[in-house]
Amino acid sequence: MKTTIAEVGKHVGQEVTVGAWLANKRSSGKIAFLQLRDGTGFIQGVVPKNDVEEETFQLAKDVTQESSLYVTGVVREDERSPSGYELTVSKLELIHEAVDYPITPKEHGTEFLMDHRHLWLRSRKQHAIMKIRNEIIRATYEFFNNEGYVKVDPPILTANSAEGTTNLFHTTYFDEDAFLSQSGQLYMEAAAMALGKVFSFGPTFRAEKSKTRRHLIEFWMIEPEMAFMDHEDSLKVQEEYVSHVVQSVLNNCTQELDVLERDRSKLENIQAPFPRITYDEAVELLHKEGFDDIEWGEDFGAPHETAIAEKYDKPVFITHYPTDIKAFYMKPDPEREEVVLCADLIAPEGYGEIIGGSERIDDEELLKQRYDEHNLSEEAYKWYMDLRTYGSVPHSGFGLGLERTVAWIAGVEHVRETIPFPRLLNRLYP
């Protein structure tokens, strides 16, 4: 009976066949232990010399790392195994012999591993990170589908940008200029005016020459937009969504979190509501912490965000940033126009901002004023103005960066390990 490693628990005491790769092995004179993986999980295959044919045991001793095999054996329960099971092997069939696999069970430098990212993905740790990423994506669709949102796909090639053309990748679209999208937000606003509550999930690109552990050139964003929702409504959606995702990972990725040695206690209390402080309060807090360099009206850097996050054991919203340092489309606070109705959600443990969101300007005249202040072409952005001209309503939205969220939940230091094939400042290979 053919099965997968993830499904062997359904066949305890039965003989099964699994297609697998050899991750590692060790052997003594009378027994060989094969660490097997098939993409769905990892399991140990035990090959007792006295219970198998001679050529089977010889193959178990000789087979090389990352060779592919059909492994036949009886499924046994084993409390010592991370999966709870092992295979007592009766037969091995070599599919392909791997020779001189470059990533051996020893320490390798980061650049070497990045050059071999296509193979590094096979390792137990990287496998665990990708499974957690997948669970976050699954839980995202689950949350928004259950809440009545419609999935909409904004374009990747755009004629203009959500936040100005700084740090965008330029290309030629036949005989006119185009850019790779840095956000689908403006298009999602149009979709919200048609469908009410929408969300997108897709790649975004920023030509930002940054080498920090939080930045990628190509990354994935989840961007909901909601008609008839104000800033406060949006904050509630954000904290409920993040709580749902974290609890889903805790419930469905136990083995993966163990592989990564993630302290699950730091995730177990991530449930709504989240604490909130204003930008004013954040500046005051930073001054008390010795950050005399930050002045009102300046954006926060990574050290500032980390210092603020250390005061909380949950993600924290920083709200009401100065108007001058935020995007043109953010709605000013009616009671204080020098700040906008926005929030950044800062993850605990030094992982920085994972969500940025705001209530959007819904007044046509104010948006025209913003066009002038930001030197935006009224012709290029006419379609965006039409959303205010024809049936404008209060509306809000936000964007969550997938890779930073994976890094935080999985406890991974650098975002380069949270995406299958990272695009970094000096890396376009493989």
TrEMBL record:
PROSITE patterns from the UniProt entry: AA_TRNA_LIGASE_II
Keyword annotations of the record: Aminoacyl-tRNA synthetase, ATP-binding, Cytoplasm, Ligase, Nucleotide-binding, Protein biosynthesis
Reactions accelerated catalytically: tRNA(Asn) + L-asparagine + ATP = L-asparaginyl-tRNA(Asn) + AMP + diphosphate + H(+)
GO cellular component, one term: cytoplasm
CDD domains for this protein: AsnRS_cyto_like_N (cd04323), AsxRS_core (cd00776)
NCBIfam families: asnS, PRK03932.1, PRK05159.1
UniProt protein name: Asparagine--tRNA ligase
Species: Texcoconibacillus texcoconensis
Name of encoding gene: asnS
